């Protein structure tokens, strides 16, 4: 079966190569230079989507206030905090005991929602899946 498959692939490759090489029966290109024709795929392609409109309000620059990471063989941790109130912390550790085997990830993140409320989520992800706990506090942005 393998020999038949290889033979079929080789025959297909030879047939494709013969179609790509010009023969004596094909007319030669004229000596005058011509512009290349547009590819058919480009002509049939839809127009690119329009870029989203720029926000109407003033733009503020968000800076990173704090950033750290530590990666080891069986565990990692990282954290960051930005000037707009966004922050995230996460630790991951490979557990190899009878109760909890596999990667255990614990973390949290905070941000200010567009309506000005402060969102805080704490989570754990382990053999039981992703388990978030969300807190939403109304407040000034």
Automatic annotation (TrEMBL):
Keyword Iron-sulfur: no
One family name in Pfam for this protein: Chitin_bind_4
Classification via InterPro entries: CHIT_BIND_RR_consensus, Cuticle_Struct_Prot, Insect_cuticle
Signal peptide range in chain numbering: 1-17
Top-level taxon: Eukaryota
GO cellular component, as recorded: chitin-based extracellular matrix
Organism of this sequence: Chrysodeixis includens
Residue ranges, compositional bias (Low complexity): 22-56
Region feature (Disordered): 22-59, 79-98
Molecular function, one GO term: structural constituent of chitin-based larval cuticle
Keyword Signal: yes
Name of protein: Uncharacterized protein
Keywords: Cuticle, Signal
């Amino acid at each position: 079966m393998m020999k038949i498959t290889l033979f079929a692939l080789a025959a297909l490759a030879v047939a494709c190569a013969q179609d790509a090489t010009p023969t004596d029966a094909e007319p030669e290109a004229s000596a005058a230079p011509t512009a290349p024709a547009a590819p058919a795929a480009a002509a049939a392609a839809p127009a690119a989507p329009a870029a989203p409109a720029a926000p109407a309000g003033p733009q503020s620059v968000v800076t990173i206030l704090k950033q750290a990471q530590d990666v080891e063989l069986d565990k990692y941790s990282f954290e960051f905090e930005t000037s707009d109130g966004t922050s995230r912390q996460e630790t991951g550790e490979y557990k190899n005991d009878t109760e909890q085997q596999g990667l255990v990830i614990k973390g949290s993140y905070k941000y200010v929602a567009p309506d000005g409320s402060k969102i805080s989520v704490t989570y754990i992800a382990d053999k039981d899946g992703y388990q978030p706990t969300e807190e939403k506090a109304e407040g000034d942005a």
